[in-house]
């Protein structure tokens, strides 16, 4: 399967797919009549699929909030002198383990769903309208929100299992890079990001063909130059106002810059957080540095939760707004809207499947791992531990006896010859 994004009419023609860019017919970008509205693409941006992405991200935020509160408890409350020697309640620790397991499950599901979405979009790169492309970009950012909360709030992500953690990181990075290609392709001066006639035209007619050039980094220099060019104004106030005006103009012209920048910032923060937590476990930091890094981690966790909440709310609002203005009214597609296709059922069942992980995590945390094999293994481990403890105690007694004997001999030698038996 060849990667097709960004696409253009020429690239699509080379793959025997015709793309018609009717700029003369839809160039005004005015409001749509009912006869001009688009049918929903249920296989990619169906209502049920988008809502699953939104609900998944929202649940990840709630779970992350609980883990962030636990961070405050561990690093601020439990670190007090009066609390250092007290053990945490076992059920509380098991509850945190259950929440972490559930968050990892939602992240894994979002990873699979997002990669499947990317592959489906790639296959329809030449047919997808600009409107449906905008919805896809919103869904991809929602997928990244779940991963961000996973990496920011499970403090010992790498220490719990390096190989599994690295396997997850590779998948998340692959998703982010491919999502970056899709989002960056929308950062062109004429890509329609709002409802209107232009959004009917295929997305391939607008895409930025430099998006795969190191994720479009070469375009940032052009953007920076256009923003910082202050014209002929000489005083500082005028320069600042000109820069602000340029920034507004550039952001408006590049409609997808906000979501793409969000993706890049999230990736940087998440990787920095994982690296910081890993170094805290490996380096012998002073108490002051450890507390400083822990507080910075807590601050980043709460900031990520706030940012994630804002993104989820804006994404939901944006989706409803675009859908209400661009798609055929429900009255004309009542029969079609009630159909349940495989692509709509699968994400819902994947999300429902997380209940299995919840039950498993809860039972293992509060009841233990069932099965005769595990019971025998646990019993053998206890017996072995008891024997090792007895052996160590015996060795300690022998060593103590040797030390006592040596001390007695030294005392006798120092006291002189013994007489009078």
From TrEMBL:
Superkingdom assignment: Eukaryota
Region (Disordered): 387-421
Keywords: Membrane, Transmembrane, Transmembrane helix
Keyword Transmembrane: yes
Spans through the membrane: 49-69, 131-151, 163-183, 257-275, 296-316, 345-363
Matches recorded under InterPro entries: Elsinochrome_Biosynth-Asso
Bias (Basic and acidic residues): 397-412
Name of the featured protein: Uncharacterized protein
